[in-house]
Amino acid sequence: MAEASGKTLMDLISADPTPIPAKSSSSASASASTSSTASPAAASAGSHLQQPMSTKTTLGEKKSKRATLTQIQNDTISVAKAALNPVKANIMPQRQRQKKKPVSYTQLARSIHELAATLDQKSSQKQLVNHVFPKLAVYNSVDPSLAPSLLMLNQQCEDRNVLRYVYYYLARILSDTGMSPGGGIPTPNWDALADIDAGGGVTRADVVPRIVNQLTSEASNSETEFHARRLQALKALTYSPSGNSELLSKLYEIVFGLLDKVADVPNKRKKGVFGTKGGDKESIIRSNLQYAAMSALRRLPLDPGNPLFLHRAAQGVSFADPVAVRHSLEILSELAARDPYSVAMTLEKLASPAGALQDILHLNDVLARVALARLCHSISRARALDERPDIRSHFNSILYQLLLDPSERVCYEAILCILGKYDNTERTDERASGWYRLTREILKLPEAPSKDKSNKTKRPQPLIKLVMRRLESSFRSFSRPVLHAAARVVQEMGKSRAAAFAMGLQDIDESVHVNAFSDVLDDAETNDSSHPEGIRRTSSISAGPGRNETIASLLASLMEVVRTTVACECVYVRGMVVKALIWMQSPHESLDELKSIIASELSDPAWPAALVNDVLLTLHARFKATPDMAVILLEIARIFATKVPGKIDADVLQLLWKTCLIGAGPDGKHTALEAVTIVLDLPPPQPGSMSGLTSLDRVSASDPKSALALQKLVQAAEWFLGENANYAASEYAWESATPPGTALMMLDADKMVAAASSRNPTLAGALTRLQRCAFSGSWEVRIVAVQALTTIAIRSGEPFRLQIYEFLYTLAEGGVQSQLSEMHLSNGEDQGVSGTGLGVLITPMLKVLDEMYVGQDELIKDMRNHDNANKEWKDEELKKLYETHERLLDFVSLFCYIPRAKYLPLGPISAKLIDTYRTKHNITASSGSTDPTVLATGISDLIYESTQPAPAASNSSGLDDDLVNAWAANLGDDGLLGNNAPAMSRVNEFIAGVGTDAPDVDEENVFSRPSVGYDDMWAKTLLENNELEEDDARSGSSSPDSTGSVESSISSHFGGMNYPSLFSSKPSSQATAKSSGSKYQSTYEGYGSPIREEPPPPYSYSEPQSRESFENPMAGSSSRSYGSDDDEPRKSTGTRFGTALYDFTAGGDDELNLTAEEELEIEYEVDGWFYVKKKRPGRDGKMAGLVPVLYVNQS
Amino acid sequence: MILAVLFANSVGNVLIERFNGVPAEERLTWRSFLVKLGAENLKGVKNEELLVACHKSVYIVYTMLGDVSIFLVGKDEYDELALAEAIFIITGAVKDICGKPPTERVFLDKYGRICLCLDEIVWNGLLENTDKDRIKRLIRLKPPSEF
């Protein structure tokens, strides 16, 4: 902060303009605030100002700010009093006394009052212009109590400079709505102050009507001499907030009145366009007034249905003042976006080859021409004008001519318009026909008015050639904005091209199909006859193969130039270039170049995280446009994961993995999964362990933060594998034909692995990697790996299940641990449990598998017995079997989602017997404990007897490949992207191109997410549920109790509700968390707790309902019945009632205000909070929400 | 919409800021983002050399003029090129008022007039006057075109 010059904003408000002795700004303000009695306000305000860089507001700063405000407040009150009781004392001597000390706001305000009173003296005016007004500008807003003096100055002062300031400050008073955009030294809320000082406070409400009155009367003053002031008065009026309808109608009245007088007089506009010099006085004044009126109209709200509004706006096109013309065109282009027909009709004549719009092409105002491009685009693409192809073609022709505009801004706007990018609404057909237009149409300048044009552009030119030439030359520019914009245009070109491909125009570069395409497109676009003779289909002129080659070669040479732009030192330009390259990458081209560009780019530490994520989101958008590119995009995403794990948003990457996995289709699934597993191959980020890897896969995680991020990424990848490997490998236990007996015979581990990999290399590969993760790496990574393995074990048939079982068993026994203990210690990840900790933690998972195998064994034994004795199965035996089946299903459901109706924990051979029992007892497969809560609570047996659940509404049709595929296809579509998970909304937001919110500055915040998500809260409560249930659970089910605690707490971090997963049927996973916790928590609390102490998971939904939108057809129609039954179990467990003991004020959105004595319905308990419903809405209108348990008396 | 115009000195103190259509709670973030951007990139940059950045659909163009750095944030039609245009006008006006690329001292001495100029150039988030002479006339309360 210490700065040699030491000049700060503070010096500006010092009375003495001579330089202040150099000192650091902070010390200056500090000393000022301590020593000066007259101006602590300004001084401390200054100190507040000077540190915008520090993002953390320290307590001290806050204090000083408060002190400032109090001081200003005191000062203002005294000023207000002073204004009421005129003070004789002159400010001047005071000022001289305290040289070099800043002038406080009070002093400035007082000077204005006094100088306004002594306006007749020249010195007063000088004082105002040179000292008082400029200093006042430093403050954020202006005190309304100054308004009377300002108005007095406005009426009496002759000095133009004083008056200009007066208008400036009047406008600021008008615009001030408490959050003034002024910046500068903060000022208090004047109105609040005035309220405090009930005696003499002046509020905005008091002065605004007076200001408005005076300004409106000035704005209506038609004296010639006055017209400059009239302009400023009108301008000041437009600053008033648009909420005031009375003022608004007054303004419309003034503007329309003004336009009435000045607009309709035919003026010599030709002269005006090329410069206003030499005009007569009258026409110049008129032009000035036209300008004022049009500028004011531009700031007024649009009035789309009003023909008068449209008429006035359209008149502006012919005005002499270029700024007025610009505003007029901007208004028209906005109107045309809503109602192209009437705008087109109004402008019909102006658009003709000799019309006024043609002149605007040569108007010296860039933004006017930009607005013209938008206007022409809106009209030439309007469906409403299908009847009037002539009008459309006129506008189209103007749009194409704008491609030749000398300004890049205008030319690019025209290109974007032609490409079908107008605003943020992305329409594929618009985009596709945009690409078609760009590649097929030609520009021929109209014959008529080109008197000042040289002949070189007269030859008809294909648009694509013009555009390419223009872009290529732009890329040679040294100006970074130009490079950035050009890269952006190329990106948009890529988008339109991708849309064209997606619309079935993939062979657009081949001549053979040209005519076929034009047929296709003519339906979607316009009929050929709509084009004027100037714009003809290229296909009819040159449909030879040479031409098509030209497009390809043009593109190739452009992309060559684009690639060289990566050398630009500006990282944002490079970012845009990378995005452009991603968009221009076609599915069939070699990826190597792009990959190496991105890899080398990302190695540059200058890339900010936001930009990296932007590129990642671009991959999403690219995938959405061209699902064929799934594998390519995953390859690219891999680079992000390896190069900058600390900078990317793991959620977004996850989502990309998932969408791409689905989009990859049956053939690409293996490759897609490989791309994810690559993350697991990453070495731990210790510097020593990075040898032997190719540069592409080398991790750049040198600092602890990226190491942590990498670990999270690895966890995410493991979780993803666990959830999705079965999908990718198309291996499901419930579809496996291998009877368990076969598998049991192959107890030799090596044989098993060999068999596994030969049967399904995809799954085997995933398993190998997960296994490796399960015994190396950090504790967190290992536990997730084990969990993923368990999930796969449950979902896969043999021999995979056995293979995993075997592995887990060894791991639990510590065999693997001890073998690898050396390595384990070497990477410093020992958690202090010397390896056994993990073993104990995985025991529960192992126990489930144990139970399953024991059950299978017994079943086989039983079956043999029956077979040998040739006995029929008795009903009790069947019942026992069925109960075992259901019990196992419940346990399995605690770990992961499985289709209950089809899943056979006792192996395929049990199918027949279970079926028999079901048929006998009329149990549909999906009934019983399929209900998500009951199912997952695992206390199904207990509730089952008391409350017989209704038979499921739909019989679950089980799972077949078609369903899976259909669902997958669905997911690739908006179904997935429409989900409102944070990552999805980020993706959607990106694709929609919105987002103007402020960027994250503090890099520390990269990982900071909501500390406790809803899911987490829920899971935790369940973990801490009451003992009763726990006892019941113990008696009901003995062995796999500890599973629950580990599983649930992990699943709350990595469970289905957080990551997108093919199997994460939301209801079940959510219920899993709930149930398991409630039952099994206390037993293994000791092990559960470290997990809970983990940093808050970054993957938490904030919106509980988001999981509902995640539909899972894998569960067949039963997933729908989940939703519908969702509320019932809660009620069946008994809704409780209670009364509020005390008043409670909600501290957050999900909390509920309580008034003591209020009656409540308690829905459920969450981590020390009740979710309650009120009988009637409270004052805040809320009916339900969270309240602390202690505030409620349960009845 | 030109979302923000911000002047800062060489050590990152904000001298002038004008926000349009930016929620109050985001202004602080924007301010720190811009100042940080300047601190990281503006060292050794020539006068009026334009730098560019973007965040989501918002564009940022910034430059250095004497001791003062100038930032413009815009969206929609105010893309990087339009902002470059606007910043060119602003730097031109500031140079006119200060006579040369300003030191911070000079800038502060002319603070009031610079505010008036800015008021004529950016009006309610839209670019208004672009012509130097016209701006000069308007801040002296003369009509935009004189006879």
UniProtKB/TrEMBL annotation, chain A:
Keyword hit for Transport: no
Region (Disordered): 1-67, 1028-1137
Biased composition (Polar residues): 47-58, 1061-1084
Entry keyword Heme: no
InterPro entries reported in the protein's UniProt record: ARM-type_fold, SH3-like_dom_sf, SH3_domain, TSET_member_tstB
Domain SH3 per the UniProt entry, residue ranges: 1133-1195
Coiled coil region boundaries: none
Alphabetical keyword list: SH3 domain
Positions with biased composition (Low complexity): 21-45, 1035-1049
PANTHER family xref list: SH3 DOMAIN-CONTAINING PROTEIN
Protein name: SH3 domain-containing protein
Annotated source species: Brassica oleracea var. oleracea
Automatic annotation (TrEMBL), chain B:
InterPro entries: Coatomer_zeta (IPR039652), Longin-like_dom_sf (IPR011012)
GO terms of biological process kind: intra-Golgi vesicle-mediated transport; intracellular protein transport; retrograde vesicle-mediated transport, Golgi to endoplasmic reticulum
Annotated keywords: Cytoplasm, Cytoplasmic vesicle, ER-Golgi transport, Golgi apparatus, Membrane, Protein transport, Transport
Record membrane topology: Peripheral membrane protein
Domain of life: Eukaryota
GO cellular component: COPI vesicle coat; Golgi membrane
Intracellular or extracellular location(s): Cytoplasm; Golgi apparatus membrane; Cytoplasmic vesicle, COPI-coated vesicle membrane
Record's subunit section: Oligomeric complex that consists of at least the alpha, beta, beta', gamma, delta, epsilon and zeta subunits.
Role this protein plays: The zeta subunit may be involved in regulating the coat assembly and, hence, the rate of biosynthetic protein transport due to its association-dissociation properties with the coatomer complex.
Family assignment from sequence similarity: Belongs to the adaptor complexes small subunit family.
Protein's recorded name: Coatomer subunit zeta
Taxonomic source organism: Brassica carinata (Ethiopian mustard)
